[in-house]
């Protein structure tokens, strides 16, 4: 069985993807506060939900990346 | 009391509540209790109690009193042999035991107070006999089987100056006290309706020893009209007392309907009752009780135009609950948009089902046993020789209300509250 190696670049890339997810979730919270006219203190009081949603988004992005990766691999194989 | 922390906490809470002018006036027993002298350890502080009736409820009261400081269970009485024996065992033979309360009366000088937990029809004459002998009385609810007896008990207490306290423990329950405080502060607005119910699913019978059918009426006294008003005196009286207390009024009239609907086993009292009580200014109390379904249990839903209180579950609900955090609203909306059924034909009407707001707690979960606190209140009153103002009125008004409810159901007509039984209009009662 071959060793699984997560390279430094890979870790950096994944962190960037999760960071993007977190920023999207955070912006969603900003939008919600403005949209539903609730307290701006929710920017920090709802951080746990933002964090949770960021992981959900990261997982969704992961699925999309896997699909794209699969399609590209298939195209390369056929070429 | 063994749980000293619990008692101290309660007394502290009581003191805080009763310090409010409004609450002090509405709940004078709290104000009085908060100011009462606590038990000392001297022999002169010892309260000697007698128990008349040591069935299920009497036993519970006795066990509660055994937890109180400087209380001596001096005498017990029950004319049913198994209960008599149980009382002797519970007191380790230290209490003098009687089969007949009149024999106990002969030794009244050895007692400060009695706790009466006999079948309902026996409350009045036993209470009156003890009061006339100079003994303070705690009598289980309801007061009596008839209006005349309830009034006679009250008049005797007033004439003798002795304490007569009726067992409505919700007036010592922290959740109810807090609920009252929040309602009195106007938080739920104008109370227009109280919906109260008590639902159980059992036949309400107690087993009769084999080969002793003559004991049926003695053991299952709650089933027979001569001894009990059934669900009204055994359950409703607690909740109608709460309604009277929260509304600060008594009903002006009552209408109702009752039936023996499910348990057709020879009983004489209804197993299914529904009453509507009219209060001044158009306020209604809607009461029902069944013993063939327990899904909804018991509750008093105190409804104002700004909110609702459900004291049994210790909750208060605003009509305009605070909004959920914006982010959760957004997620909920997204979830609804994706997963909710989209009607493409048929009725466009959306049913107005109950509001799903979960409310907020009136008080945190607590370890108080309101019956224990009620008994401590009674013992304190006996020790200080003064009745708590307001308590007898609450017991009396609740009993009159439920008996009138029964009369409305039995006679199938609207019953007005009779002038001669109105507390406010009878100075002899007050």
UniProtKB/TrEMBL annotation, chain A:
Transmembrane segments: 15-34, 46-72
Key words of the record: Membrane, Transmembrane, Transmembrane helix
UniProt keyword Transmembrane present: yes
Protein name, entry field: Uncharacterized protein
Automatic annotation (TrEMBL), chain B:
Residue ranges of every copy of the GFO/IDH/MocA-like oxidoreductase domain listed in the record: 176-310
Entry superkingdom: Bacteria
A GO molecular-function descriptor: nucleotide binding
InterPro entries given in the database record: Gfo/Idh/MocA-like_OxRdtase_N, Gfo/Idh/MocA_oxidrdct_glycsds, GFO_IDH_MocA-like_dom, NAD(P)-bd_dom_sf, TAT_signal
Residue span, Gfo/Idh/MocA-like oxidoreductase N-terminal domain: 48-168
The protein, known as: Oxidoreductase
Organism, scientific name: Prolixibacter bellariivorans
